[in-house]
Amino acid sequence: MIKIRSSNQETGNNFSSPATGIRWILGSFLCVFTTGIGAQDGWKYHFSGVPIPDRIQANSAWKFEGDDSLFSIPESNDGVLFQWNTEKPNSGIYFPLGFILDERSRFKASVHFRLRGLDLEFVPGSFYGFQLAFGFVDSRQVFNESYRRGTGVHSPDLYEWNYFPDTGFGSTISPTIVDSESKFFPTFNFPIEVPVGEVVEVTLEYTGDERVMYSTLKVGESEVQAMEAVRLPSDGSFSGNEIDAFSLTSYRDFDEMGRLLADGEILDVSIWWTPALPVEGAAMKVALRAGLSGLNVSGGSELFVDGSVRLWCSRDLVHWEFVTSAPGSELSQGAGFPLPSLTDTGAAAVFYMADYIPN
Prior knowledge:
By secondary structure, this protein is mainly beta. Helix content is 4%, strand content 45%. It folds into 2 domains: 2-39 and 284-358, no CATH class; 43-274, Jelly Rolls. The protein has helices at residues 53-59, 328-331, 342-345; strands at 2-5, 15-16, 21-25, 31-35, 43-47, 63-65, 71-72, 80-85, 91-102, 106-122, 132-137, 158-164, 172-173, 176-178, 184-186, 199-207, 212-219, 225-226, 230-231, 242-250, 258-274, 284-286, 288-290, 295-297, 307-314, 321-327, 349-358. The longest helix is centred in the N-terminal third of the chain and has 7 residues, at 53-59. The two termini are 23 Å apart. Mean pLDDT is 76; it is low at 1-42.
């Protein structure tokens, strides 16, 4: 990965990475950082403090989709107020990961929140029950009207933590994985109540090498409780899935069997993820080196003769955009990608990454 930035860049996001780099000074205000992103690297993002709505929409790695009345800032200016409301369209505060992850990947989230209010209506004796939800989703689908969480057949591609308040069957915590064909793989942990007014810590972790999702709950100063793990079957019944974001999600209920209205104060969120290791025929990360003339493939470029190298750019290490590609045969002969100037990019910081696709 190559990073280009002005020397006076400021950012409100806090990213950390285990990778390190080398720096060259190419001019009064231009620095180039080269960083290798290995297949086992992961990023960690943590937010708390004073995220304001226009920053989440425009200038932050966090985005909002859906009904903006569900999002607000508390009087303390600390954290975010989010409302789960089954009468509103699918909505969420979400963090795009910048990668498509699947069941071979590894990812984890930790959330501290406090319920400020809970209003639940349901038909006694029915199996109705909607949930407070957050987890890893496919943002290309989850906010569409056709995505219906309550039907059991219209909500693919999820790794989610769910809390179902008591509707006569006991308060239930249900970590759930849903595949691309909307087949559900949950566990049900009850009776476990998430009380109003208490600070709650939830962790959700999926490990692709085990094909298992773990979750824990900690209420106030109580002991950490481990939920029953979700274990994907090995009999072929799991069809695979893809996710690209972490989201605090409010789902719309499409029938009239009940209503859930829950006000939550989201205090902080931490997210870790590691893309899956490359498989045969899949894209592999390529190291870049920066020179005065451009960006070149670094080390063993003859290995890339039988394929193409693609160049990607990002302004926030979250959203990656395709720039161009070049045949590996050309790169092996010394050709490279032109190095854009800061004027060309129109941004204070631009990050570059390359990968290789075999023919």
